[in-house]
From TrEMBL:
Active site: S151 (acyl-ester intermediate), K154 (proton acceptor), S216
Provenance organism: Levilactobacillus senmaizukei DSM 21775 = NBRC 103853
Keyword Acetylation: no
Annotated binding of substrate, by residue: K337
Classification via SUPFAM superfamilies: beta-lactamase/transpeptidase-like (SSF56601)
Family, per entry: Belongs to the peptidase S11 family.
Keyword annotations of the record: Carboxypeptidase, Cell shape, Cell wall biogenesis/degradation, Hydrolase, Peptidoglycan synthesis, Protease, Signal
Positions of the Peptidase S11 D-alanyl-D-alanine carboxypeptidase A N-terminal domain: 124-368
Highest taxon, organism lineage: Bacteria
An MF annotation (GO) of this entry: serine-type D-Ala-D-Ala carboxypeptidase activity
The protein, known as: D-alanyl-D-alanine carboxypeptidase
Signal peptide: 1-31
Length: 389
């Protein structure tokens, strides 16, 4: 028992010494006693974090309310200064709150630097905002690095499908071969399917187009590719040829659907040496731009919330559409494509056109908050004067 008490005493002494070094570390003392020497109201001013160090507390420092690390791109608005005393040490603290007023409290002034926070995305590994009118990126984060993109890959498959439909080579009512054993098995697989190919049913190009676009059906995408080019392998070669024709040098396809070869192998649809489609965020945005430019109907189709296709519900997983959780009326989102695999993470290519602005195309890859970060990215894109009509 004495050993434990002695250990506690030593720790307490070390903690006191640490506190006396700088008031910057004092904010981490959750049980410490702070007294207010003086408080002054000041003109509201913007600050942002100096580093990931620091936290926000209530004035008595008995409760930690937030950490600077948890709000990497937040602008904090300071309206009060206070001198707080802890033991024989005094420090200057600022009363801060975020723009929404949902997080507020006191933090040591040394954790902040004056000015609004630079824009950034916390979760997306790769991202870009593209001005649809000019084709130029207005903001980016590692946008030229190729990485797995999951079902976002289907925008190329849809482009080549629409290309054939809009030529004399194919029609919407054409019946697509869907009875291959691998496709049927995939359609019934909970992890890899999404739209069941039923025995005895005939599916048209239009059926599978909606199944691939809205429901993100992998088997529908592969079946469409085989309809376009004659075989899975020939279609993937066509995907890569189209990317090369557009001078997309950070794009390489091995899958019509976006599934990785490690999943496709069991169904007999693996292709090439690489495991996954590898495409940069900027190249994804440029593919989306070509799709919208050449076949604008994809915006009308992509804004459909759900559609019954051969008795099955093709549900659109774009949760930025009207009536969905992340809908913002000002952003006017009308597309385009979600994607997810464990390897690629959550991916989303979105598009919308705010009143008086150019259309924006945004891409976030491997982003666990893909819709909230897309909201932020779209708003940031619209803030640039080059986006004005």
């Amino acid at each position: 028992m004495k050993i434990k008490q002695t250990k506690r005493a030593v720790l307490a002494l070390l903690f006191t010494v640490a506190l006396s070094g700088t008031m910057g570390t004092a904010v981490t003392a959750r049980a410490a006693t702070y007294t207010t020497v003086s408080t002054t109201n000041v003109t509201k001013a913007a600050y942002h974090k100096k580093s990931t160090t620091g936290a926000i507390y209530n004035k008595a420092h008995s409760k930690r309310l937030a950490t600077m690390k948890g709000y990497p791109n937040t602008t904090w608005y300071v309206t009060k200064h206070a001198t707080l005393k802890h033991g024989n040490t005094k420090g200057i603290y600022y009363y801060v709150q975020n723009k929404a007023g949902s997080v507020k409290g006191w933090t040591w002034h040394g954790y902040l630097v004056k000015g609004t926070a630079p824009f950034g995305l916390k979760y997306a590994k790769n991202a870009v905002a593209l001005d649809y009118t000019t084709g130029k990126a207005v903001w980016s984060k590692s946008a030229n690095t190729a990485r797995p993109i999951a079902s976002v890959s289907k925008i190329m498959t849809l482009y080549l499908t629409l290309q054939k439909v809009n030529s004399s080579a194919g029609k919407w009512r054409d019946v697509v071969k869907t009875n291959d054993a691998g496709l049927v098995a995939m359609s019934k697989d909970a992890g890899c399917g999404g739209f069941v190919f039923k025995s005895g049913h005939k599916y048209t190009v239009k059926d599978l187009y909606y199944a691939a676009l809205l429901d993100s059906s992998n088997n529908a995408a592969i079946a469409l590719g085989q309809w376009v080019a004659g075989s899975n392998a020939k279609f993937i070669k066509q995907m890569n040829a189209q990317a090369q024709a557009w001078n997309l040098d950070k794009t390489s396809f091995v899958s019509a659907s976006g599934l990785e070869n490690s999943d496709l192998k069991v169904f007999g649809y693996n292709y090439g040496r690489a495991n996954a489609n590898m495409v940069s965020a900027k190249d994804v945005a440029l593919i989306a731009r070509h799709l919208i430019q050449d076949y604008p109907r994809v915006l009308t189709d992509g804004s459909i919330g759900s559609k019954t296709v051969d008795g099955q519900t093709a549900y659109n997983y774009n949760n930025m559409l009207a009536g969905r959780k992340y809908y913002k009326s000002s952003l006017k989102v009308d597309g385009l494509k979600t994607g997810y695999t464990p390897l690629a993470g959550y991916c989303f290519v979105g598009t919308g056109q705010k009143a008086g602005k150019h259309r924006v195309i945004t891409v976030v890859l491997h982003d666990e908050n893909e819709f909230t970060e897309t909201q932020s990215l779209m708003n940031k894109a619209y803030s640039y004067s080059s986006m004005n009509n």
